[in-house]
Task: inverse folding
């Protein structure tokens, strides 16, 4: 008669949990700072129950089986939470792999049969836990990616402010790399603000842009052209020496765009265009 | 047939596009406008497209054409009130409307036209 892995494990549920906890607690990578032992035990207990409830000798080889749906859900949940809490992939992986050890330990202690059967049972358990581990990694990475995506969105949101520096003069400091998606946001914000404020001059300050390649330059030129179509003049300022060199070496023609070295000189140029003058007050007393 | 009215105001011609421009209407506008420029000897053409929310490459070209043709007829063209979405679309289509001037609103457009014409008038005196 074939050895019944599922039944044996279900009978020894308590023992498996004990082994598992022991394995986890003696592991060097245990993160007590992120999760208390009680919480860990609760989480492990829940996971183990779900696993053993769903496990039968028929579905042990097939982790995709719908019997394991609730288990997969729990594992995904744990994995995503851990990703957010800042566990490393290795720590999350060890969590699942220590379960494998516990399961095997329990099996071996309780085993009656010949070596071939034991090997078979071991292989099956290993395969099952590997399947679980794959799910864990999948969701762990997904969890991390979600975090990254959210941060990217936030950065795009906060990094494109349009500032009214003077009546009729807008400034737009660009910080970070300009890609197509961001250019679109920058352009839209700028054009809408031009309409709202009735400004006739916009200053694009690119001192916060780490590198300018032909694509970024293309985006800048697009923004300037769009501003012109709206009937406003666009000045690019904050071009660092390295960027100026790259632009020239790439053969990008910026000759029909007004460029200034600093925001200050761009502002001065804007004043000239608007026929404004800034004068030092002759009054001796400050207000 | 529908036509877009062209108003004369002193030296200038005013066109306000209040309806969605379809291709035929745009072509008519181009020919009407050129006729009017030659008939009235206008010095400037002001086109208000603030109500225009959709443009395609054909429309963009027509506007550019009007600018170039008027230029040959010795009139400056100013397009005013372009909406941000329209500007972005035109740029994405690669149309920069090289021949025409642009201004934010009608008031600024008028001011720009007056300046341009003043400059032109005063140039011969400078020589």
Result:
């Amino acid at each position: 008669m074939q050895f019944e892995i599922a039944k044996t494990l279900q009978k020894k549920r308590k023992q498996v949990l004990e082994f598992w906890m022991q394995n986890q607690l003696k592991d060097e990578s245990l993160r007590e700072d992120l999760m208390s032992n009680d919480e860990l035990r609760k989480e492990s207990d829940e996971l183990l129950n779900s696993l053993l409830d769903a496990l039968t000798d028929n579905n042990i080889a097939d982790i995709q089986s719908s019997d394991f749906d609730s288990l997969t859900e729990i594992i995904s949940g744990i994995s995503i939470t851990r990703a957010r809490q800042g566990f490393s992939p290795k720590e999350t992986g060890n969590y699942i792999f220590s379960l494998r050890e516990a399961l095997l330990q329990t099996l071996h202690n309780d085993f009656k049969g010949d070596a071939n059967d034991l090997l078979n049972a071991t292989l099956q358990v290993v395969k099952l836990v590997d399947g679980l581990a794959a799910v864990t990694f999948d969701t762990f990475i997904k969890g991390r990616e979600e975090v990254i995506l959210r941060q990217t969105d936030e950065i795009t949101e906060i990094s494109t402010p349009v500032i009214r520096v003077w009546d009729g003069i807008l400034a737009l400091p660009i910080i970070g790399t300009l890609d197509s998606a961001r250019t679109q946001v920058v352009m839209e914000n700028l054009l809408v603000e031009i309409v709202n404020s009735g400004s006739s001059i916009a200053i694009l300050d690119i001192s916060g842009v780490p590198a300018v390649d032909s694509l970024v330059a293309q985006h800048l030129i697009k923004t300037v052209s769009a501003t012109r179509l709206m009937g406003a003049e666009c000045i690019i300022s904050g071009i660092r020496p390295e960027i100026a060199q790259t632009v020239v070496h790439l053969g990008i023609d910026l000759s029909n765009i007004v460029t200034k070295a600093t925001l200050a000189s761009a502002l001065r140029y804007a004043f000239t265009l608007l026929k404004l003058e800034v004068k030092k007050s002759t009054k001796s007393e400050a207000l | 047939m529908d036509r877009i009215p062209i108003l004369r105001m002193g030296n200038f011609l005013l066109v306000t596009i209040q309806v969605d421009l379809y291709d035929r209407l745009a072509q008519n506008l181009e020919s009407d406008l050129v006729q009017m420029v030659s008939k009235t000897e206008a010095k400037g053409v002001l086109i208000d497209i603030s109500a225009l929310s959709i443009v395609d490459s054909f429309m963009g070209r027509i506007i550019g054409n009007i600018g170039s043709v008027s230029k040959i007829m010795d009139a400056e063209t100013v397009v005013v009130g372009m909406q941000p979405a329209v500007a972005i679309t035109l740029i994405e289509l690669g149309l920069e409307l090289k021949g025409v001037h642009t201004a934010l609103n009608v008031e600024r457009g008028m001011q720009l036209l007056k300046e341009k014409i003043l400059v032109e008038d005063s140039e011969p005196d400078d020589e």
